[in-house]
Design brief:
Layout (H helix, E strand, L loop, with lengths): L1 H25 L7 E6 L2 H4 L2 H6 L2 E2 L2 E8 L2 H9 L5 E4 L1 H10 L4 E9 L2 E5 L14 E4 L5 H12 L3 E2 L6 E5 L7 H6 L5 E5 L2 H8 L5 E5 H8 L7 E8 H6 L1 H20 L1 H10 L6 H7 L5 E5 H18 L17
Parallel strand pairs: 1-3, 7-9, 7-10, 8-9
Antiparallel strand pairs: 2-3, 4-12, 5-12, 5-13, 6-10, 6-11
Helix pairs in contact: 6-9, 6-14, 11-12, 12-13
Length: about 325
């Protein structure tokens, strides 16, 4: 009888511990909030709908903000003041390589959006630019190095004083290039969307999108058909501690991009309402040309690495002198 009582007590205790232990084991780590920041301009447009309609994730409040540039976002991301943000791939790679435990890449959300715009109808290929000065949006950025890479692949020299060379000029900011081309101050310019669409719309068709650099890349690149321009990055500590919430949020980002592409007019209204850099009419017309997409980090790795190799060849310091390791790509 005594043995039965002891045995029963042990069974009860074992059951009690299992009941207590199970919820502790299964309990998810939940942050007090999720702080998401986008960049003012084209890279943030595909998330405008989230600002309006998505304020909570699995019981976690979602907070939004708009940063003027990567330089503003970066220190806040590293200091845990922002949990998830948007950066160009080379900037993300450089941060990771210089501070390996700072950020990870969650997904690519924008691909090649670069166009050569001009009023010159004779420009059809890169070779038609020989002997001309081309203004490029952003020194040390994706437009510069993609354009340099494609000119080199085409056998075209740069910045030499002869009729077979293309002179690169970086003296005018991207936001001012459409007006400069419209006014004939600039004859040829490499600009990303939505600036190319802005130039065409405001010139009533006088300015043309002469060359799509995505098409040129597809013809000349070693492996990938396109180059990434925008990535979602995650504070590494946040991604490690709140992995489930991070995955859920990335899925909502995917849905937001799909919604933006399906409803550009409504998305354009949200872009203007949440001050993401464009008026609704221009934003709505630009969205279909902006190459928004959602590719998870692991799947996007080959395309990301091919672009980073271009940066590494021209300016190693722009990616931290090497390609990021496998741990850069969030799983």
């Amino acid at each position: 009888m005594k043995n039965k009582i002891v045995c029963t007590a042990l069974i009860f205790l074992a059951f009690s511990f299992s009941v207590i232990a199970r919820p502790i084991k299964e309990k998810k780590q939940i942050p007090e909030s999720l702080r998401f920041a986008v960049l003012n301009g084209p890279s943030g447009m595909c998330f405008a709908g989230m600002f309006e309609h998505f304020t909570e994730l699995d019981g976690v409040p979602v907070e939004y903000e708009v940063c003027a540039s990567p330089d503003v976002m970066l220190p806040r991301l590293i200091k845990n003041e922002i949990d998830i943000g948007i950066l160009p791939p080379n900037v993300a790679a450089k941060v990771y390589n210089t501070s390996p435990n700072s950020i990870v890449m969650g997904a690519v959300t924008g691909f090649g959006m670069l166009k050569i715009i001009s009023k010159d109808d004779t420009v059809k290929t890169l070779k038609d630019l020989k002997g001309k000065t081309v203004y490029v949006a952003g020194v040390g950025s994706t437009p510069e190095y993609v354009f340099r890479y494609l000119l080199k692949k085409s056998g075209i020299s740069m910045n030499e004083k002869d009729s077979n060379s293309v002179i690169l000029d970086f003296s005018i900011p991207a936001s001012e290039l459409p007006a400069a081309v419209i006014s004939d101050k600039v004859k040829y310019a490499v600009v990303p969307e939505p600036f190319a669409t802005v130039a065409v719309q405001k010139s009533s068709g006088g300015v043309k999108k002469c060359i799509n650099l995505t098409n040129a890349w597809a013809e000349m690149a070693d492996s990938s058909d396109d180059y990434p321009m925008t990535t979602i990055v995650i504070n590494a500590n946040f991604a490690k501690k709140y992995t489930d919430i991070t995955r859920l949020f990335l899925e909502e980002c995917r849905k937001s991009i799909e919604w933006t592409l399906a409803y550009p007019e409504k998305a354009g209204e949200m872009v203007e309402e949440h001050t993401l850099g464009l008026k609704k009419d221009i934003a709505s017309k630009a969205i279909p040309n902006c190459s928004f997409a959602y590719i998870p980090a692991k799947e996007a790795k080959p395309a990301v690495e091919e672009l980073l190799k271009v940066f590494r060849d021209y300016a190693p310091e722009s990616v931290g002198n090497k390609l990021p390791t496998e741990n850069f790509y969030f799983k």
